[in-house]
Structures are given as C-alpha cells and as structure tokens.
Specification:
Layout: H1 10-23, H2 28-42, H3 48-58, H4 65-78, H5 80-105, H6 112-141, H7 146-166, H8 170-186, H9 192-208, H10 213-226, H11 235-246, H12 252-264, H13 272-304, H14 315-334, H15 336-340, H16 346-361, H17 366-382
C-alpha cells in the first residue's frame, strides 16, 4: 500500500470524511471527485496515480465503489481504525437522513401533499434510471471492439432479460456472464469451483424464502452489498424484486419513492436498502439492512490490505467484470419494466417525460431534477390530482 508520508489523525479523518458524508450529493462520480480533491489535491496525502489505481480497483469489486474508495483513502492516511471511522463518517449522515425520510414517507397517513411529493419524485426515477443506464452502457461498451464488443452487447441483453423474466435470479445472471467471459479469455472451461459458486447461490436463493423477515432482509441486503456489480443502480432491480414481488414489503410506488430518497440524500445509492428495511421491519430493519449491505465493503478493503491495489492488475478480475459489468448495465435497463408499473396516473407519466427532457436535453443534474419533480407532484396533489394508494 506504500509508505504513508502524510499521516492523518483520527480526529482529522472523522471531521473530513464526515464533511464528505454531509455534502456528498450527486452519486458516485461526485464522491470520487470530492475524495480526490481532499486526499490528492488539497491535503496531498495520496499520489494521483495511487488514487486512480485505488478507484479502478474499487470498480472491480462488487458493492458500492465510492464507499469502498472512501474506506480505502481513510485506511491509506490513518490506518485500520481510521478506515472504520472514516467509512462510518462517510455513510452515517446520509443514512440518518434517509431513515428519517423513510419514517415520514412510509407513515400510515402522510398528508396529501407529501404523498404527491413522493409520487412526483418517484415518477422522475424512471428518467433517472434511463439516464444512468445510458451513460453506463456507453462507458461499459466503449473499451471493447470486434467480437468482444458483440459479447459485451450479448451480456447486456442477458442482464436486461434476467430482470424481466428471471426476477430473483438476476444475481445469477450477472455472475454467469462474468464466468462466461472469464472462461472465454482463458480459452478453457471454467473451473469446477467457479461453477459451484452460482449453483450454491441458487440453493441459497431457494432457501431464503423460508427465512424469517429479518433473515430475508439480511439476504436481500447481502445481495445488494456483496453480489452487485457495475455501480449503485444495479441494486435497483435486485431490491425491487425482493421488496415488492417476493416478500411484499412495499408497493411499486413506495419502491420508486425509496429510490428517489436514495438520490436526494447525500452518500451512496446503496443507502436505499435502509428504506426497504424500514418497510420490512421498522427502524430495526433499516439498521439491519444497512449493516449487512455495507459490511462487505469494509471487509473487502480493510481485509485486502496491501493486496487491494494489486486487484487492478488481475487479468481474471478484469475479465470477470467485463462480463458481469455489461450484464449489470442491462439489468438497470431491464428494471425500467417493473419500475414503470409503479406509475399509476397520467400526470406521473407527464412528470417522467419532463424529467427525461431535463436530464437528456437540458443536462440538468439528477438531484435538481428529482427535487423539481417532487415539487411538481406536491402541486399536483394540492390541485386535486389522484394519488397512489397507501400500502
């Protein structure tokens, strides 16, 4: 991991990473930029090349990449305890906000204007997912040429189809595409141990239906935090399938609101899982979901230690992600189908179309677009527009 020429105190890590946790609006790209400005440009704790290597390594891991980068940077400048403190300081402010908003939005009798606010922001989520999917598809396919590009396109289609047709088995599709690309690159059959991994996962998927609510929630959160490749929005189809269709903790409309809350609060998109947890089992469920979803990131980065950066050089890891990554992008596009079922009224579709125009045409940011859509929804409710049913 290199010599630490500039050691930061625990108090400094708590203060600086806490500031990032409070101001980190705008998604993973914004988080990376803020971390770089702090650690490379302003404090000069980390050399630019090491930062870029760490960022690349985080993108080869499952789970929230920007959170993993925040943990790594704290580890790099302050050691293991600083990694724990910095990671928590980065996560907890936004988590506290989103749990408070979940308690309000999922209350039994919110005011009509609050219901309209949620319905408007939820409608805009359709446009946000489309925008994110489009951007990720371009960046995911750009490095490939020839037959590799055709394979990447096929993995993207598999990911989209898996969400629509296979539901809870979307994680298997992502892993399967990654293993397929790895096998092709190695010009040999996939090792039996690798084949056994998705088979074991399939058994776990089948067994999960018999767990308690807390066990089911922990399993959903584990998939979100340890088995999702390709960026924060990959968690959307994974969570929606379990939260709405498999376990019935939320309606489609409530899930759209949850995704919107994950976007308008600072911190990683993965915090959306706390809203799902609140819907399933109240405050305890929200905290359990967050704990299980974020724990793998700490284990991957802190446990990896000096070997973490070397992940970028791994041809096997790169090959696996070249299969799983496009499939994950496809899953984001596939999620548009179940997400659209959460729009109940014509006025919500109008807001969704307007949001798409703002995101694609005016190039407005995600957070301002969602806030504008929320305001439009609140106004629609005050004017007597029909609202989605409660619960």
């Amino acid at each position: 991991m290199g010599q630490m020429a500039h050691q930061a105190s625990l108090g400094t890590v708590l203060r600086e990473w806490g500031r990032l946790g409070l101001t980190g609006f705008g998604g993973p790209q914004a988080h990376v930029a803020l971390l770089r400005e702090l650690c490379v440009d302003r404090k000069k704790w980390i050399e630019p090349q090491e930062f870029e290597d760490a960022n690349a390594a985080c993108n080869l891991l499952p789970g929230p990449a920007s959170t993993q980068l925040a943990i790594y940077c704290a580890l790099r400048v302050g050691g293991h305890l600083a990694a724990l403190v910095g990671g928590l300081a980065f996560i907890l402010p936004g988590l506290a906000m989103i749990i408070a908003l979940a308690a309000i939005s999922l209350s039994t009798a919110p005011a009509d204007w609050l219901r309209g606010l949620g319905a408007g922001a939820g409608a805009a989520v359709i446009a946000v997912v489309l925008r994110v999917g489009w951007d990720l598809a371009r960046s995911s396919l750009a490095p490939h040429q020839g037959f590799r590009l055709w394979r990447a396109g096929a993995y993207l289609l598999v990911g989209a189809a898996s969400v629509i047709a296979a539901g809870p088995f979307v994680v298997l599709a992502l892993i399967g595409c990654g293993l397929a690309e790895l096998a092709i690159r190695r010009s040999a059959s996939t090792p039996l141990s690798s084949v056994g991994a998705p088979a074991a996962l399939a058994l776990l998927l089948a067994a999960a239906s018999g767990l308690s609510t807390q066990g089911q929630l922990a399993w959903t959160s584990l998939k979100v935090g340890a088995l999702s490749y390709g960026g924060g929005f990959v968690i959307v189809p994974i969570m929606q399938e379990d939260a709405v269709r498999v376990y019935g903790w939320m309606t489609d409309g409530q899930f759209l609101n949850a995704v919107a809350l994950g976007q308008i609060t600072p911190g990683p998109v993965v915090q959306t899982v706390a809203v799902v947890g609140y819907a399933a089992a109240g405050l305890g469920g929200a905290l359990l979901a967050a704990l299980v979803a974020f724990a793998p990131s700490f284990v991957f980065v802190i446990g990896g230690g000096s070997r973490f950066i070397e992940l970028r050089k791994s041809l096997n890891a790169r090959a696996f992600l070249d299969g799983a990554g496009p499939a994950a992008v496809g899953a984001i596009f596939g999620a548009l189908v179940p997400l659209a079922s959460g729009l109940s009224f014509t006025w919500q579709w109008v807001i969704a179309a307007a949001a798409a125009a703002l995101l694609f045409g005016a190039r407005l940011g995600v957070v301002p677009t969602l806030l504008a859509a929320a305001a439009a929804g609140a106004i629609a409710a005050l004017l007597g527009a029909p609202l989605p049913a409660l619960g």
